[in-house]
# Entry
Amino acid sequence: MRAWIQDHAEHQRASGQLARGITYSLVVCDGSAQFVLAATPGAFDPNGDSTP
# Structure
């Protein structure tokens, strides 16, 4: 995950996908474990309701 912080090209890819309404996902392997970060664009309602 630390390498992702420094990866400008990957940030651009993530931002571009989210701006186009596409879910962004990143898989990070650490030994035998895999971690998945996924971000899906959507609208935020401060009242607690959200729309995909």
